[in-house]
Each structure stands twice: as structure tokens, then as C-alpha cells.
Amino acid sequence: MTKAILVHQTGGPEVLSFEDHAVGAPGAGQVALRQTAIGLNFIDTYQRAGLYPVQLPFVAGNEAVGVVTALGDGVTDFKIGDRVAYQGLVGAYAQERLVTADRLVPIPDAVDDQTAAAILLKGLTAYYLLFKTWAVARDETILWHAAAGGTGLIATQWAKALGATVIGTAGSDDKTALASAHGCDHVINYTTEDFAERVREITDGRGVDVVYDGVGKATFEKSLDCLRPRGLLASFGNASGVVAIPDITVLARKGSLYVTRPTGAHYFSQRAELLEGAKALFDAVASGAIKVQVNHSFPLAQAADAHRALESRQTTGSVVLIP
Hints:
The protein is α/β, with parallel strands linked by helices. It has 2 domains: 2-120 and 268-322, Quinone Oxidoreductase, Chain A, domain 1 (Alpha-Beta Complex), CATH 3.90.180; 138-261, NAD(P)-binding Rossmann-like Domain (Rossmann fold), CATH 3.40.50.720. It contains 10 helices and 16 strands. The strands form 3 sheets. Strands 3, 5, 6, 7, 8, 15 and 16 form a 7-stranded mixed β-sheet that branches. A 6-stranded parallel β-sheet has the order 11-10-9-12-13-14, with helices on both faces. It has a 3-stranded antiparallel β-sheet with strand order 2-1-4, with no helix packed on it. It has helices at 42-49, 113-133, 150-161, 173-180, 195-202, 220-225, 250-253, 264-267, 271-287, 303-311, and strands spanning 2-7, 16-21, 30-39, 58-59, 63-71, 83-87, 96-100, 105-106, 141-144, 165-170, 186-189, 208-213, 227-235, 258-260, 294-299, 318-322. This is Quinone oxidoreductase.
């Protein structure tokens, strides 16, 4: 018997219940993990609240790092004692769990457990957005919303390393300072400035090549105003609510724009793609191109407090739960 955070009904952070949870032995193709660090992500809050439906009851969470403690039949890529990480698998808020081996990635010695748990989901999100959704090229200009958040701090550093001019938004002076220190050439405090007007000023009226928007409803329309003709808005999150486009001709009026709503599930459906992205991410961390900010940690039993902090914008950088 182990401990885990279960969700028996959807709702606010108070529905997260720390309780006993049976794990069992690994089946064919599975490994058993003793988890050492768990990543906190906005998708966890969406699932808890019911925005992204998950069959009830479920163990919350989608990302963690652990040590392999047992192997099921047919597992040959890992051995007992290996340090591994995964993302995109519901059930992460637990001291121990079973995971299908082909969803695991090895962690290099240069990356510690808390860093790996803090960056895999966010870092792979940054990877597919910057390299696949819109392959950022040297001298292009991008806008990244919530640049002081966990994904933002990774992505803006990576984009800067690729040679882009990086504009970020954040919601306080402290957060704009943090974003400036992590790759942003320009940072806009959206609580005191009109970010669309500032983007036009910064780009001499041209607009940016691509906007990466994990905020959602609150920033969507003005994000379109930040784009150059035929630019792309990559809407990858709903922190402020779900985006709706009642009149698609707005894209024509604002410059024959493109909009996409990508998800990691489609970019990493094949193991080779997952390993490619994870290697690129860990290499960027090991080289120093990405410096990781794990600014907050909570005991697993206090997952509800962690959700409250994340949803109320009290966090910067990445947050981990410690089993």
C-alpha cells in the first residue's frame, strides 16, 4: 500500500484527497517506480476541475521522476535502479506507481530529479512549440505570454538560444524582472500596459512572426493584433478560460492569420519522437542554454495548497511535489 492524491469528484483544490492507494506488481511491458519528485502543471488543474474529463476516481497528476523498482515481462530497455521520467500520464501524484515502459525516458546524470520532474512536460511543450509547431528561425520575433511561468522560463531561454528576438508578457514587476533575466529581450507588464500596442511599438508596426499563448481567453483577441500578416497564433493553454472563435473571418481581416491548438499527445505519439524531444531538452539543460527555476516545492500531502498557489498566480518558474 502506498499514498496518493485521488480525485473522487471534480471541483476545486479541496477535492484532492491524500489517501492509501494499492499499486500491485507490474504487468507485461510495465515497470514499477518509487517516485522521487512530481511536476505540477496547469493540465492537472484542468483535469481536477473537469475541464479535461478523466474517468473518476483517478490519481491526479501527469509528470514525475522515479527509480525503477521492478520490471514486468518483456521490459528490456530499463533495469532496476534506473532513474527515469515521464509526462502525459495521469496518475503521477503518488509515492509509487506502475508505468508502461515505452512512455519512460532515461535521465542523464547531469540532470537531478527535481529538475527533471519540473521540466519534462513543460520542456517538451516548449520543444514541440519552438521546433515543430513553428520552427523558430534566427532573427524571427516571437511573443510568449506568461513568460515568467514554468513553461515560459524554459521556452524564452530556448528561443533566445535559437537566435530569436523574444518578447514576453507577465503580470507583475517581479515577474517581468524574472522574465528579463531568462531570455526575454522585451517584457510587457500586461496589468499596466496594452501588450498589443507595445508589441507594435517594439516591432516598428510589423508585428511578430508567432505568438505562443498558454493564457487563453483573456489574451486571445489582442494576440491576433500582435501578428504580422500570415503569422501564427499557437494557443496551447486555457489558464484564463477556453478560447472560442465565433467568426473565423476575423483571421482574414487581421492579416490572413493562422491559428492552431496543438497538444503534446499528437506530437509525441511515437516513442522515437518522445526520445528525440527529451534528448534535445536535457541537452539544452546540460549545456546551460536553459537554466531551470524550481522556485516552489510542496509535500505531496499538500497538493491542494500547490494547486491554489498555481491557479492564483502566486508561483513563478516550476513547482514540484515531494512524495
